Amino acid sequence: MNFFLGEEQLHWQSLACTFAQERVQPLAREMDEAGQMPHTLIEEMATRGFLGGTIPKAWGGSGMDALSLALVYEELGRVCSSVRGFMTVHTSLVMQCINQWGNDEQKQRYLPLMARGELIGCYALTEPDAGSDAASIQTTARSEGGLGYALNGEKIWITNGNIARIAIVFARLHTLQEKKQHEQITAFLVPLNAAEDAGIKRTRMPGEPLGHRASDHAHIVFNDCFIGHEMVLGGEGMGFKVAMSALDHGRLGVAAGAVGVHQACLDACIQFAKERKQFGKPIGDFEMIQSTIAEMKASLDAARLLVYRSAWMKDQGLSTKLETSIAKYFATNAAVKAASEAVLLHGARGYSNEYPVERYYRDIKGLQIYEGTEHIQKIVIAKELLR
Ligand SMILES: Cc1cc2nc3c(=O)[nH]c(=O)nc-3n(C[C@H](O)[C@H](O)[C@H](O)COP(=O)(O)OP(=O)(O)OC[C@H]3O[C@@H](n4cnc5c(N)ncnc54)[C@H](O)[C@@H]3O)c2cc1C
């Protein structure tokens, strides 16, 4: 076993760390308050090669290994979950999915533009009545005389949905209605450049989200939206497999992002414990504060090792369904606990956005929910063990 990062991994980690600390960190609170992130940040991530992730250089990507990509997510997650979330959806859910399931024409048409940040992607699976039970989606695709398909339905909580120009949309194909529920699902690449004209209505999700406030979350309605037959991704009836394989990539990104949030909580607590004095001494002198910091560090190391194990296995070409779910389950839960403890350790200061721990506390809850909730990860883990 080798616990040292290689030269290439150290390169991506250092590049991402510098970018995150110098370019994202100073804007994080402002973006959270404004409810959006500047497009320049996306351009800068593209210029540095982050958006190209593990996509081969032949398709315009950066050709990273999975561990390098996890390190980029960790560094971004350390400063802003909205920025990390943007990239996980764009790069891991959408680009990796096109790379895995697309034909050469689809890869050529979309991947280079996406790696350059000139085309933003979103992944549209969730619906008002289909969240954890993704196989029960109700959006339909009706065959239009061999020319293509008409999409009808509604998607919610779609990250990047209003700024995206390409979506992977999952719908139930009419011609497959005799098949099992999940075998009817088909994935479509849906261009979003002329949204209103093409029978697509995109709006911001109503209400203020608890966290990820700088992210763009869309409600998308399809009303007889015509999609050419060449836009099917992975073949008719393959959509559920496409969706689940994308989530396998995305979940690792979320788990790595959670490690970043966890690290940020620990850093903030150590600094505050040294600075804040009560009863005539720094609060870091009190054993209960030391206990909090020690537990935070131990669970952080465990979470990080689980994330790196899953990434390393991906790089060996091994199946990682079990290990990725374990990493996502453990890392997000551990970070939720760390963020809660970090707010407590900061006292009233932790309850205000004067300090970033309240943002970490709001943001981290989302990581426990999207791309399969904590409960769903436990179901995946148990099923893998019991089958
Ligand atoms: C910030 C954010 C970003 C998101 N981005 C996207 C995106 O880009 N694209 C997209 O498609 N979706 C996105 N989502 C939606 C997200 O994937 C869903 O919210 C998630 O899958 C859960 O679905 P739900 O909200 O409908 O909850 P439900 O499925 O209704 O679950 C409600 C509760 O029941 C539990 N539950 C459900 N089934 C079971 C079971 N069998 N056993 C035990 N417990 C169960 C759940 O764990 C949960 O606690 C996003 C959500 C958030 C909050």
Overview of this protein structure:
The protein has 387 residues and is α+β, with helices and mostly antiparallel strands. It has three domains: 7-120, Butyryl-Coa Dehydrogenase, subunit A, domain 1, CATH 1.10.540; 122-240, Butyryl-CoA Dehydrogenase, subunit A, domain 2, CATH 2.40.110; 245-386, Butyryl-CoA Dehydrogenase, subunit A, domain 3 (Up-down Bundle), CATH 1.20.140. Helices cover 52% and strands 15% of the residues. The chain has ten helices and ten strands. It has helices at residues 7-34, 39-47, 66-79, 81-101, 104-115, 239-275, 287-315, 321-345, 357-369, 374-386; strands spanning 121-124, 140-144, 148-159, 166-173, 185-191, 200-204, 217-228, 232-233, 277-278, 281-282. Strands 1, 2, 3, 4, 5, 6, 7 and 8 form an eight-stranded mixed sheet that branches. Strands 9-10 form a two-stranded antiparallel ribbon. Helix 1 (7-34) packs parallel to helix 3. The longest helix is centred in the middle third of the chain and has 37 residues, at 239-275. It is globular, with a radius of gyration of 21 Å. The two termini are 29 Å apart. The structure holds flavin-adenine dinucleotide (FAD). Residues 89, 123-126, 131-132, 157-159, 212, 217, 366, 369-371, 373, 375-376, 379 line the site of flavin-adenine dinucleotide.
